[in-house]
Amino acid sequence: MINGQVLVRVPASTANLGPGFDTLGMALSLYAWIEMEATKDGETVIELYGDGLNGIPTNKTNLIYKVAQMVFEEAGVNIPELRIAMYSDIPLTRGLGSSASAIVGALVAANALAGSPLSEDKLFQMASELEGHPDNVGASLFGGIVVSAWDGTRAEKVRIAPHENLEVLVAIPSFQLSTEKARHALPDKLDMKDAVFNVASSSLLVAAFASGNLELISFAMRDKLHQPYRAPLVPGMSEILEQATSRGALGVALSGAGPTLLTLVDRRSARKAELEAFLLNTLKQHGIEAQTMWLAPALDGPELTTFEAGKTVPFMERIKGEVKA
Ligand SMILES: Nc1ncnc2c1ncn2[C@@H]1O[C@H](COP(=O)(O)OP(=O)(O)O)[C@@H](O)[C@H]1O
Ligand SMILES: N[C@@H](CCOP(=O)(O)O)C(=O)O
């Protein structure tokens, strides 16, 4: 166990990218920070900063605490009590991978605190199992666009570097939609035609990203596997999916399980303001208040810093200047 503090900055993620259900993910330039150290007095303290983590427990049921204990157990090191400090710009339960970023941040921080006994691949396996699907955790852990497959036992992935002109505009509704609820909206069985449509779209989308062919994105980003069933949960979503590409987007999708809507945009586009207004107005017409954010693909996964014991710079001082809010 190292005698000091570790600080991890983890990116948010968008999962599915339309047709790649539970498979495609992209890291986003929106972050959560987790600081961790072993306490000597046997007390566990969880400090939450900012308004973004309202409602998150500060006792031992906290996800970050539980995941950290799993790392110590897996590594076979003495399980310490912890001081954990957290701040996040990633809105909770909006389809931007807050739970995945918490899991990845906890895995990376606890592993670093234990002296890095677990490999990055081991952390990916644990994260996929904990989250139940590898798309968000893969993106948060490796950065960029991540194509992943998980068979329930093992996860594999390939990372693709995003095209330099790819920009992201998200419209984040003010209401929350848990992944669990949005997964319950999905059918047990699918039409063969729809399955073939998604295999084709997802394959083409991956090839478009890998070859940097931005023109193919609008054709390839279409989905018949989950979005049609989730659309009733997000008023205005169907209209946005139908029209965003004619309003200046390269492609459009529900971000993860929603309710956030995500558009990919060519950063050189002259139609950015038009697209942003279209997203906000459409949601508003359906009675939904929303906030837009211009983001970029995050190229890197977690950024780790270690501090010697005894240097007690306040947590918010350490991350000041980086936070979005
Ligand atoms: N920093 C965090 N610490 C503890 N739990 C968290 C944290 N971030 C997210 N969570 C948990 O994850 C839940 C949201 O997960 P989910 O429904 O999958 O939505 P999303 O991952 O899209 O934000 C939160 O309600 C909370 O229980
Ligand atoms: N593939 C999952 C992704 C859930 O992402 P989240 O950001 O909403 O947690 C799904 O579509 O259910």
UniProtKB/TrEMBL annotation:
Gene Ontology cellular component terms for the protein in this record: cytoplasm
Residue ranges of every copy of the GHMP kinase N-terminal domain listed in the record: 62-144
Catalytic activity: L-homoserine + ATP = O-phospho-L-homoserine + ADP + H(+)
Organism listed in the record: Paenibacillus sacheonensis
Superkingdom of origin organism: Bacteria
Residues the entry annotates as binding ATP: 91-101
UniProt-listed Pfam families: GHMP_kinases_C (PF08544), GHMP_kinases_N (PF00288)
Descriptive protein name: Homoserine kinase
Subcellular location: Cytoplasm
Encoding gene per record: thrB
Single Gene Ontology MF annotation: ATP binding
Involved pathway(s): Amino-acid biosynthesis; L-threonine biosynthesis; L-threonine from L-aspartate: step 4/5
Segments forming domain GHMP kinase C-terminal: 206-274
Keywords associated with the record: Amino-acid biosynthesis, ATP-binding, Cytoplasm, Kinase, Nucleotide-binding, Threonine biosynthesis, Transferase
Family label: Belongs to the GHMP kinase family. Homoserine kinase subfamily.
EC number: 2.7.1.39
GO biological process, one term: threonine biosynthetic process
Stated role: Catalyzes the ATP-dependent phosphorylation of L-homoserine to L-homoserine phosphate.
Coiled coil: none
